[in-house]
Amino acid sequence: MKNKILTALCILFGLMMINSGANKFFNYMPMPEMSEEMMQIMGGFMTIEWIFPLVAIIEIIGGALIAIPRTRALGALIILPVMVGIFVHHLVHDLSGIGIALLLFAINIWAIVANWDKYEPIIKGK
């Protein structure tokens, strides 16, 4: 039962990441109203022209991999740095979005913990 719940959550998580990554390329979802501080942060990201395409590609690849049970362990690791960035961003700059960020981060951590046996040989050096 727990495995089916994790699979369903990972599929939804993966679809959200794919959607978020695709939106960075095609801009089909409207941007929410931003504070002055957020406008400055976004302006800083825009000056680094390669950062959004890189994050988008990682979100799309990681989202696709985490949605597929066989590749979930790899997808969870690939998407982890992006999730840490999203969580810390909301924690520091935009507390209104911390709930969904925390939920997605928890799903990512759960996927890592559930696949720990696949990481163990790497960590132990076997």
Average pLDDT over all residues: 95
- Distance between the ends: 31 Å
Order of helices and strands: HHHHHH
Largest sheet composition: none
> DSSP strand (E) fraction?
under 5%
Radius of gyration equals 16 Å
Proportion of helical residues? over 70%
Low-confidence stretches: none
How many beta-strand segments? 0
Categorize the overall geometry: elongated
Protein model, in words:
By secondary structure, the protein is mainly α. The chain starts with a helix and ends with a helix. It has helices at 2-26, 36-47, 51-67, 72-92, 98-114, 116-124. The chain contains six helices and no strands.
List its traits.
80% helix, mainly alpha, single chain, 0% strand, 126 residues
Strand-helix topology:
Elements: H1 2-26, H2 36-47, H3 51-67, H4 72-92, H5 98-114, H6 116-124
